[in-house]
Amino acid sequence: MSLTVLTSAYRLRSICRLQRIQSHMMSSQVEPGVLLEKVGSAGVITINRPKVLNALNLPMIRQIYPQLKKWENDNETAIVIIRGAGGKAFCAGGDIRGTCRKPYIALIEGITMGGGVGLSVHGRFRVATEKTLFAMPETAIGLFPDVGGGHFLPRLRGKLGLFLALTGFRLKGRDVQRAGVATHFVESKKIPELETALVDLKSPSAEDVSRVLDSYQSQSSLDSEKPFVLDKHMSDIDRLFSSSSVEGIVQNLKADGSEFANKQAETLSRMSPMSLKITYKQLKAGATLSLQDVLVMEYRLSQACMRGCDFYEGVRAVLVDKDQNPKWNPSTLEEVSEQAVEQCFSSLGDKDLTF
Question: Is 49 helix (H, G, I), strand (E, B) or coil?
Fold first, then answer.
């Protein structure tokens, strides 16, 4: 059989398997929460719970992590692609912590929050589309931007990461890349073709993957003429969010008096005071820590939130009763003592997270 025929047959099999995954994604029948398949030399992870915005749960994490490690040690697996089913959300919640030494491409189409951020943002390649919606809304439910938020957020330009973490501001489409959360922007209609191009790569290096992604990004002109949504506010964000405390940030916003500053001050007034102070300290510390050390810190914070009351109250007000009227305790920034914040970061001894 000629090389051309062999190549064509290989490509056809790859396309057929991708189509089978896509048909799984559109099925209305009860499906497993995560699909793990080899497509050519690519390991493909599909988060498959579209009815609940592809939220992660523990059984899914227990499936994904060992498969990632298996592919990592498999010489016939060259790259890993992770995607969300249904087109509405990549992943809107949950958490997984791990690393992958092979080229890891996250196609973050749709809602990307919580666990969706953890599954994507620490990888080398993150591809946004016009349907991508990114946010770290945790301070609104008495939590903090976990899944390594303390590592990647302070590494965004200026005070942008702190602004996103404290306010939960939402980024959409091309702005997700402009902020530095995504590495590439590709129009949604080109994603199937991009997947096929990635799958067809033979023993690709990270540079090979980068060239393919760059090529598809160059073909995507949608919204390219629009400025970054926060472009005209970046100098204000850097100035107003440069303070040694959350109280100082609020004072800066109120003293500024502009429409933008007033809106951010009003937003912060609705957030959990304890969460705001924890988040501020988390990002300040995380700016100089490794990802592993940040995850150890964030595990300590998660346990502190479980011991407190704001997380339960935030979930009740925002997600359960949906009255959007949480009763925070303490109710003001001034009532949150420095000692209480410090205790949240204290070692858990032999219960600390280990790798």
Answer: coil
| Average pLDDT of the chain to the nearest whole number | 89
Catalytic residue among 43, 86, 94, 116: 94
Residue 124 token pair: 């080398």
Report yes or no: 119 and 187 within 8 Å, Cβ to Cβ.
no
Binned at pLDDT 50, 70 and 90, residue 94 comes out as low
pTM of the model: 0.85
Q: Hey, what are 328's tokens?
A: 């925070």
Question: Are the beta carbons of 138 and 112 closer than 8 angstroms?
Answer: no
The answer to whether the peptide bond before residue 66 is cis (omega within 30 degrees of 0) is no
Between 273-286 and 160-167, two packed helices, what is the crossing angle to 10 degrees? 150
Q: pLDDT band for position 95 (50/70/90)?
A: very low
Q: What is the pLDDT of residue 99?
A: 64
Tell me, yes or no, if 208 is annotated catalytic: no
Q: Edge-to-edge strand order for the sheet containing 133-134?
A: 89-91, 111-112, 133-134, 171-172
Q: What stretch of H or E contains 236?
A: helix 234-240
- Could you confirm whether 87 is annotated as catalytic? no
Q: CA–CA separation, 114 vs 234, rounded Å?
A: 24
Is residue 256 flagged as an active site residue? no
For 5-55, how does the pLDDT look when each residue is reduced to its tens digit (9 = 90+)? 333 343 444 444 444 444 444 444 457 889 999 998 999 999 998 888 888
Burial class, 37, CB count within 10 angstroms (exposed 0-12 / middle 13-18 / buried 19+): middle
Strand partners for 133: 111, 172
Exactly one of 40, 115, 149, 173 is catalytic; name it: 115
What the block records as the tokens of 327 is 């009763």
Catalytic residue from among 93, 114, 118, 138: 138
Residue 277's DSSP bridge partners are none
Check whether 214 has a pLDDT greater than 70.
Answer: yes
Taking residue 197's Cβ as centre, other Cβ atoms within 10 Å add up to: 15
DSSP state letter for 306: H
pLDDT of residue 12: 43
pLDDT class of 59 with cuts at 50, 70, 90: confident
Q: Which residue of the set 95, 109, 146, 195 is catalytic?
A: 146
Q: Is 215 helix (H, G, I), strand (E, B) or coil?
A: helix
161 is catalytic: no
